[in-house]
Amino acid sequence: MQLGKIVGTVVSTQKDEKLEGLKFHVVKHVDVDGKPMQSFVIAVDSVGAGVGEIVLVAAGSSARQTKATEGKPVDSVIMAIVDTVEVDGSVRYSKD
What does the DSSP 8-state code read for residue 50? Predict the structure, then answer.
């Protein structure tokens, strides 16, 4: 899993029928402090996340393990919205 921040959305009106009804987000990878990194991914949203939120993203075959993505041609999925990141007893990110 990787931490990421949703920075945008992707709209595709023509897509494989297995992807119908799925929402796509542009997710920029972030470090444990929530600071953006260079890399990004397009991920299917399985939890109702929105732009600006810090999320957990699973990739590869793990991305097809959620209820929303099972058996679908998906390589990345947003599987959790992050509330807090704590490292060595120090809160590095908090949604509040």
Answer: -
Q: What is the value of pTM for the model shown? A: 0.92
pLDDT tens, 33-84? 889 999 999 999 999 999 999 999 999 999 998 999 999 999 999 999 999 9
Domains of the chain: 2-94 (2.40.50.220)
- The bridge status of strand 76-81 relative to strand 36-45 is parallel
d(C-alpha 77, C-alpha 66), whole Å: 8
What residues contact 88, with CB distance under 8 A and at least 6 apart? none
List beta partners, residue 8: 26
